[in-house]
Amino acid sequence: MTATETDTGAAPAPAPERPTRSAGKAAYAWLRRTDTGSSTFSVAVTAVLLVVLFGAGTLRYENFGYPQVALNLLVDNAHLIVLAVGMTFVILTGGIDLSSGAVVALSTVIAASLLEKGWAAPLVIVLVLAVGTLLGWAMGAAVHHLQLQPFIVTLAGMFLARGLCFVISEPSIPIRDDLFTGLAQDVIELPGNTYLTYGVVIALVVVAVAVYVLHRTRFGRTVYAIGGNEQSAGLMGLAVGRTKVAVYAISGFCSALGGLLFSLYILSGWSLHAIGMELDAIAAVVIGGTLLTGGSGLVVGSLLGVLVLGTIQSLISFDGGLSSWWTKITIGVLLLVFVVVQRLSTRSKP
Amino acid sequence: MPETPTDQRHRRRLDTSSPVVWAAAALLVLLVFNAVVNPGFFSLRIQDGHLFGSPVDVLKNVAPTLLIAVGMTLVIATRGIDLSVGAVLAISGAVSFTIIDGSPDPTSAGTAAVAIGTALAVGLVLGAWNGFLVSVVGIQPIIATLVLMTAGRGLAMLVTDGQIITAENPAFDWLGGGFVLGLPAQVVLTLLVLLVVAALTRRTALGTLIEAVGTNPEAARLAGVRSRSITWTVYVFVAFTAAVAGLMTNANVSAADANRAGLFIELDAILAVVIGGTSLAGGRYSLTGTVLGALILQTLTTTTLTMGLPDEYVRLFKAVVIIAVFLLQAPRIRAALGRRRRSARTTTSPAVPLPPTTGDDARPLSPTATEPATVPTTEPAGERTAEPATASTTDQGALR
């Protein structure tokens, strides 16, 4: 926290005019310099923030330091991690996906209603993932081929997915399938009397795959190139259209997978699940250091962003005296700090 | 941002198939559908000197969304967007009700004046904050306002301490359920704001300046337009409209619910603007289109409800109509339409129906029409207006 605060505090002063070589100017210059080259700096800031937040919690609340509290960050946010990974792909190309929260709800509803009808669990899982991917693909196609704005297309997708939820089932449906409840309740014992759920393993695998795809494949480099400058990417002969559509399909897939993890976590399907979760995912991505204009950012940052959000939530629930709405306010303030720092560190020379 | 068509191309489109025409056509289809399925839809009656009936109901329920959409039109015209209006709406309602609830004389007109004044002032401050982030700090509008969207509801709950505050104040309740010349006060207020904005932006150079900022802020600045002040002003204005809408919606139910008031109204307002043909790319806007867009969304909601369908279907229909309208407006499809029209100019009319090539996605304008003609319920809408204190949380599409 301290690092970011000094940055914002010092940096705005010298921006308009540069009278003398002040400490503020030095800080600003440093901020500009550190941006050059990589987004690892932003990710480092997020990591420091996470450590500081967690350290503060450990000092302030006596049980906060237990390893299981840290692991619970992963357990409670596995679905959000997967969502944020999908969102990172989209945001890296300079787009946005507002539909992911609704797709999560749709996935839980489809899964729960089909399981209730006695479908086999593996079939249900495949179907849910297919529906999510298809919806994402359709939105991507609309964005690229019809040249509609991602914001509006995914907004329509959000309405569509939520509407479909209600059509399938209005009341909440419990999930009693053996595979689902088994996956939900079985834990992986770790040394030190701690545990992780299978959902966490899946989420971490998704992160690993995403890192590999973004940094070790042609597709990943095209994603960054499109975010940097779509026209240039096209002129370089990169498969802009295919990649853009694929990115939304990936986000749809991740939303569906996140929905499955969420249904493991909550063991029910309900059309009003996950309202506003897309905003949490976007916030996590931004806090993780990904630029909303696209082209710069790391998946690991999004993972850390989710953990920061999770830490804030546990801090507030540990405190007990703070009401739940402080979560929203804190996330808003954090978002602001990060966005302002990003803005200052990427400001083009006046 | 996708590239906009060149000026000449757009000019020619305006003559034949401007987005506003499509929006008007969609609204007309909806209205005709209503007239056929539910003959009572257009019946108006006068009760206690006030007008009642489905059309009035539509107008009344559209008022808050339309009001915000008018502000949003100007923001979008400057190539911006404001996601925080729902939060501002909630804060405005929370502030006004907390003041009325906490005052020694909760029913006096003076209290109402203080409450309204404070709520509007808070709205202006929040708008100034957004405008500051966008125009001075230079943060992307969608993110700058996302900050307040996230934190705003938390702030509203901080004000109300997480409670739903109820209060009765005759002067304040007039905003929600009052009448002027037989029309609901909300409708009259919204019309007033609309007329003022139309006059200010279309009868003076202001509208052109706003469009100039949206087209290219830097070029506008070099040409002597004070783009920074204009950008700032539109964000203050949209927050102001959101604050007024907050007073309206909360007065309508005589309660301030920080958690749910105005939930998703920002999306409805943005949709209304975009359906009306104002591109998110900025630089050009149409207030008429916005009015049509807001009316389409609300008519859709009212239609669904008067047909006796559960209001959960509203979202689905909305999605379908939105997709249809956007497909019609999509540059590529319109270009294809234009080509067809040019090649067969002698025979086709401007409002040419979709060519079959656009496939099944383009059909959705009609799903409402293909819906089985359910038994029209006896105008629950009109009765709902008669007792505004209880019902209208659900019939304002935006709250769902």
Summarize this structure briefly:
The complex is a heterodimer of chains A (350) and B (400). Chain A has helices at 2-10, 23-35, 40-60, 67-92, 100-116, 121-145, 150-168, 178-185, 198-216, 218-228, 230-235, 240-266, 277-287, 299-319, 325-346, and strands at residues 173-174, 187-190, 194-197, 268-269.
Features:
heterodimer, A: 350 residues, mainly alpha, ABC transporter involved in vitamin B12 uptake, BtuC, two-stranded antiparallel sheet, 15 helices, 4 strands, globular, B: 400 residues, 17 helices, disordered N terminus, disordered C terminus
Structural class of the helix and strand makeup of chain B?
Answer: mainly alpha
Percent helix of chain B, as a range, is 55-70%
Low-confidence stretches of chain B: 1-16, 346-400
CATH fold category name of chain A:
ABC transporter involved in vitamin B12 uptake, BtuC
Helix content bin of chain A:
over 70%
| Total DSSP E strands of chain A | 4
N-to-C CA distance of chain A: 29 Å
H/E series of chain B: HHEEHHHHEHEEHHHHEHHHHHH
- Regions with little confidence, pLDDT below 50 for 5+ residues of chain A: 1-18
Biggest sheet layout of chain A:
2 strands, antiparallel
